[in-house]
Structure formats: C-alpha cells, structure tokens
Amino acid sequence: MTGSFVDIATISDLHRLYSIPAPKHPLVSFISLDEITRDNFSEDETAYRLGFYSIYLKQVKGSMKYGRSQYDFDEGTLVFTAPGQAIHTQRKIAYNEGWGLFFHPDLLYRTALARKIQGYSYFHYDTHEALHVSDTEKKILRECGANIRREYEQNIDKHTQDLIVSNIELLLNYCTRFYDRQFLIRAKANHDIVQQFEAALLDYFSKDTLIDEGLPDVKYFATQLNLSPNYLSDLLNKYTGKTTQEHIHLQLVEKAKSMLWGTPKSISEIAYDLGFEHPSISPRCLKTRWAWRRRNSGCRRNSFGMATVILRARSATTFLYFFRKNAM
Questions:
Q1: Which pTM does this prediction carry?
Q2: What is the pLDDT of residues 141-157, one digit of tens each?
Q3: Are the C-beta atoms of residues 260 and 277 closer than 8 Å to each other?
Q4: Tell me, what DSSP letter sits at residue 129?
Q5: Which of 97, 206, 209, 230 qualifies as a cystine partner to 124, CB 3.0-4.6 A?
C-alpha cells in the first residue's frame, strides 16, 4: 500500500485480490465477474491503483468512484482505465453480470497497438462519461473477450501475442464505434455542451484577466463543464471539427487581431496583455498548427478555419508580427 492507495501492479496481483486461480497468461486476463469474490476488499471505500489497462462491462448493484465522480452501475456500462489510474470501491457490491478485460502495457511491446493505444482517448474519460451498450453490442464485445481468453488458454506459441493483441485492438475499435453512436444519440445534450463551452470561451477572452491568469488550457474549460479534458475534446471534434485546444487557439487569434487593429500599443505590450509573461520566448501553444483558408472566393484573406497551412510562430512577437503583415 502506498499512502491512501493499494497498488495492484500485475495481473497476478489482481487475481489474488479477486481470490481466483493464478492467470494463464502473465500479461492479460479476461474475467467473468461472477467468478470472483470480494473477500479481500476492504469494507471501507479504498482506492485501488492499477498498473495495467482495464475494461469493465458491469451491471451491478452498488456504486464505484472513479476520478471525481460517483457512478451508479444499475445499467450495463463500459468503463475504461489506463495504467496508474485509481478506482475507489468497497466490498459490498453485488455483481449481476459482467466481465473485465485486463492487459499490461508490456503485452503491447513491439506491436502497432503500442503506438496507437494513446489514440483511444476514452481510457481517460470520467465515469459519468462511460459507454452504455445495447444487448447486441454487449454480445459483440463479449465475443472479442472470449477469443482473447481462448487464445491464452491454449498452448502459448509465437503467434499468441499477435492474435491476442489483434483481438484487443478489434474490441477497442468496436468501442470507438459505439462511442460515436452514443455521441449521436445524445446530440441535443452534446450541442448544449458545445454552446456552454463557446460561451465560456468568449467570456474568458472578453475579460481583461489574461495578464493575471494567462492563457487558458483544456483542463480549465473541462473543469468548468464538469467533463474530462479528453471527453470534451472528442465531443467538440465530433460536432465542430476542432479540438478544445484548436478552439482556444482560434479565439486567441481573434483577440490578437482585435488588439492589433484597435489599440496603439506596441507588439510587445500586446503580447504581454495576451498573457505571455515573456513575449520573446516561444509560447508552447503557438508551436502548433494554425489553419488559414478562404471560406469562399469573396472573403477577406484574414478568415480563419481548419485547413492545411501551418504557422509555426517562434515567439509571441513573431506571432503578432505575422498578423500585422498578413491580416490587415
């Protein structure tokens, strides 16, 4: 135990916690939750920090805390955790049905999935952003899990890792599809979130607080909306075609343009007013992709949108000199 956390570093540690036989494979396990007991869990709420990826499909009576949120699992839902994340739970939870897929990062060594795993952003969602699946979707995911289990329960050979990892990737791709379906089903609520974000973004940049507070980051707006940063960016990308960071950057562009046109201040003074404490030093947020395109043939050339032209500003002042030269 480390501080207030109980570390479950390996798949073997997890099997001991669940009071089930040792794993057939040291780096992966697919467990039906009706096989486990919770006698080794604390009666009080305890934080268990996992050293591997986990995917739970649960329909339970009880609650579990993950991140900032308490979640009621009366419905069947999928929850994802990445290595190092903690789940707060206790002994008194009764499982109606469900399963868990657990795989260690070492399983992905030298595979394409090792390079792609960070792209599955739902491993960093909060529990209230969990994926709700239909009976048909549950069946598809269970079949993927059963294939993984069948593979590691056979004699392990040179093909085992590739086949297990391929099935994990297939399951993750299905989850991506099901999340896209959930985003569409919740269109009304999600559009409301987009509007709330846009209002918060405009409000932040309309105040004269950039000098004191600096430029906002993704986490700031996610917290304002009670969402995880990854979920907010994915939601905005689905409905607007831009991530949270891109929205912030574009609003910064508009703020910079209005200050260049509407004040007699020098570029260094404007850079400072925009929240850059050291204008001559490369601000990280400006070393990114800025898009520039003509919205239509009759538009002014200072119209901004998502496109392919990239500005890599080496400093805040370079950034502003660019607009003085090109955006007037």
A1: 0.66
A2: 999 999 999 999 988 88
A3: no
A4: G
A5: 230
Tell me the two tokens of residue 292.
Answer: 């520039």
| Amino acid at position 243, single letter | T
Q: Considering just the CA atoms, what is the radius of gyration of the chain in Å?
A: 24
N- to C-terminal Cα separation, the chain: 61
Rounded CA separation 311/328 (Å):
17
Give DSSP secondary structure letters for 93-112: -EEEEEEEEEE-GGGGTTSH
**What residues contact residue 24 under an 8 Å CB cut-off, 6+ apart?**
152, 153
Average pLDDT over residues 217-237: 88
- Tokens standing for residue 61: 């009576």
Token readout for 65 is 């805390």
d(CA 221, CA 201): 8
Is residue 177 a contact partner of residue 222, using CB atoms and an 8 Å limit? no
Find how far residue 24's CA is from the centre of its chain.
31
Structure tokens at 12: 């073997």
- As given in the structure block, the two tokens for residue 298 are 């009759």
Name the amino acid, one letter, at 11: I
Residue listed under structure tokens 């991506």: 176
> In the numeric block, which tokens belong to residue 118?
């960070």
